[in-house]
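Re: [help] complex structure
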Amino acid sequence: MHAIPTQAPSVMPAGGSTRRQDDEPLLRIDGLRTHFFTNEGVVKAVDGMDLTVPRGKTICVVGESGCGKSITARSVLQLVDRPGRIVGGEVRWRPGTGPATDLARLDPAGEEIRRIRGGEIGMVFQEPMASLSPMYTVGDQLAETLRLHQGLTREQAREKGIDLLRWVGLPRPERIFDSYSFQMSGGMCQRVVIAIALSCDPALLIADEPTTALDVTTQARIIELLKNLQDQNGMAIVFITHDLGVVAEIADDVTVMYLGKVAEHGSVDEIFSNPKHPYTQSLLRSIPTMRSSSGAGRGRLTAIRGMVPHPQNRPSGCPFHTRCDSAIPGTCESTEPPLIQFGGEGHRALCHLYDQSGELRDTSPKPPVMSVATVEEPQAKRPSPRADAPILDVQGLTMHFPVKSGLLQRTRGYVRAVDAVDLKINAGETLGLVGESGCGKTTLGRCIARILTPTAGQIHYRGTDGESVDLAGLRSRDLQRYRRQIRVIFQDPHSSLNPRMTLGQIIGEPLRANRIAEGSEREDRVAEMLSRVGLRPEYIRRYPHAFSGGERQRINIARALITEPRLVIADEAVSALDVSVRAQILNLLVDLQAEFDLTYLFVSHDLSVVEHISDRVTVMYLGKVVESAATADLYRQPHHPYAETLMRAVPVPDPRLRGSRNLPDVPDDVLDPANPPPGCPFHTRCPHRRDNHCDDEVPQLRSTGPNRHTACHYAESLTLRGVS
Amino acid sequence: MLGYIARRVLVMIPTLFVISVLSFAIIQLPPGDYLTTVVAQLEVEGGEVDSAQLAALRERYGLGESFFVQYYAWISNIVFHLDFGHSFEWNRPVSGLLGDRLALTVALSICTILFIWLVAFPIGVYSALRQRSIGDYAFTMIGFIGLAVPNFMIALVLMWVGLRYFGQSPGGIVSPEYAGAAWNLGKLLDVLGHLWVPVVVWGTAGTAGLIRILRNNLLDELRKPYVVAARARGLPERRLTVKYPLRVALNPFFSTIGWILASLIGADAIVSRVLNLDTTGPLLLRALMAQDMYLAGSLILISAVLVVIGTLISDLLLGWLDPRVRLRYGQ
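Output below.
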């Protein structure tokens, strides 16, 4: 990491290293129950949670959304909003050598808990930008904490605040101190939030999905930062995440949560190499792993059936039995599972499948799968893509947005969101489009779908009759007939569906708008489509709010496919979903591709998902294509340093490989497509930059191998590392 | 910030120009022109039509010329000499007619805004922080009654209450004994004794609206992640609420200045009639009915200008309050 001193600044008193190690852990949660008293009844979000955090260790809490991870974290600091309340259990907090305090008994608005919040326990949240108030400078909010807990004067707080900002690796901390959150990138904001959380040298940091909203490169650097800071001040970390790659990267111990309770707990090695609970096993199996498995082709991910039930409808017995493949009939659905201790130190699970000695009982109908990386054979064989007939041939596509400023709002420059991009998509293939946020991948997708009218360039689309049309030049009336052939699946399953329309109206809308089908025929087709995407046809009269994120994404997919399109642009279609649901949706997309002979343009920032689903991958940086290659080739050995940077930043879900990736030392600066650097756009962050050639000459996209194109001056002479 | 102010002020110029053209167009709408009206009036009164006087008027207002020449004659008199033309109905210069009434109207407007703020602020904050409490419901109900009952009705009720229980007649703005007197403490107290009635009448509706806006804004803000983050830093609840969500929720207080200023100029003619107040409202109503074009045009122009000025004040206050407004424009 850049600019991080090897020692904490002298103002930071040394933390846990001097603290006495004894039996009582730093934090012990015992039987915590946090319930929400709503008009519809009591929601038991957390119901009997146990968690032990030893001093100086990192505990990861994992599970799907709706399992009560965040509520557990908030309960520790009494931050649960009404109508939620802690109704039982203990939260024993013992930062020093004295007696432990039960935080669950403290008054949520009282003096005592306020001293602990920010003073003894720091907290970091998921949305870095939103957790800073835009009305005050970040320095004001940082100094506020210091003055509150340490009684510093304004000047002392400023001085120490600037030291802290430098400590968390922010360049020019004096300037950052006086900046507002909306003037900074997400990564910079998260560093500020971490500086605030650690400002009073807490013994514990609670980080609630701190990297989920960040780019993969930024995520890697924030995790690196947290590890460095922990080495320096000896704090313990409770790290809440749904990303098992991150868990493998940072955890000492892992607690898997399901429906407000612990399902399994163990060391990171035990959880990854010897998971016991079927839920843990299914979670691990549902991650697409980047292993550059070129020979295997595209397999199906093993998803967990269904989804997390609402806590109000908690199943009796073992809460997981409704989704468990190994459930024992007559036992799992009626009796609470026993706590089983396994050989290792503290490895335990709540499951009926094991007897008290930790051995697998022979009553289970189907033993749980132990190994992690099993991939089922693809169900449907789909025809291999036809390379000779591109369905889409994009040439020199350019989309510039004017930047206006000054008194008269004159155009001062252009955001080159997409800058002279060439792209070919063959019929029947899946082209992955990756890059960090701000690289223009979404804009490119929207230009192709002609949601935007590009500034320049051609989009040649080959219709069913073999005729090629340039979509870029068509007016909206002429575009009408292509709108049903090229469809988009949008990212956010919550805001892309009109809450006032029923599923029948939402999915049938394209049929109505294009006058394809009317009345009962339309209804029949919608019902048919619903069952194709795995929803019940009876849902046709329901409204979207009745559905979960994964189901809404199925609705989105149904709306995209109802017109029998040929090309589907999936814009971050699975990014907002949990791992298990993501696996279900990816499988669905693969099945539908075979069934309807679809061509996909799959836009995503998630490299493992792109690797799983794509035949070829195109990498974009600052509006330009920097590399384009067959998936296996690219992941085995990228030719462009940016592709390498992206790949090395992805956390690998295997704790044994921890520390094996050496991250390039690049700053969190915002990509600014209005001011791309001269020469190669990536040269400011490139670890392989050589001489001045990179600084002043723009590299052209050129062939660097069979079916590979790279925009790098030194593509041939570099040996870059892909995913091992 | 300076760039932001300069930009807001510069944007006003074309806006004001368009407004003045539209106001003048309205004056021109009735058939005939000012002179035909004057001639008709003089003939009715049996007076003699003095052709020299007519020529002078023709010269002054550019009558018979094209629209833009006439417009220029009208607007340049206003801008350079504050001469708004002549009201033929009152047979007096418009500026003389407006002076006192405008001052009273603006004074009443400012008092009303202050009243609205003073009442709406604590109630809005209370209703948000104690959402769904009995107090919240009670204030909500009173607010809706205030919105639903017509203003003139409230005015009548208040007058009746004043007369019946306090033995004073709250109509008008000064008691007859002070009418011609110079300003002194007695007169000031007397004016204040009358002022509260129109302020309360006009304030009720605005207060009810603002309470709802403040309550909903604050409720939204209270759920934002930065509030939880501030709480997780150990901030005391009261300080946290005032410093973070409340400051954002204040936006509507400033953004409504623009409309309130303007709406009082013309819209409340009925209340002014009922309360016997010499505001501009009844004047505008009468001018429109009598086709008193220069008077009507001037009032329309002035109220439009007040909207623009009110909006400018709102914008500047918002820029001061909210760094996002200030800095995004300043870039």
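Chain B touches chain A through 27 residues (CB under 8 Å).
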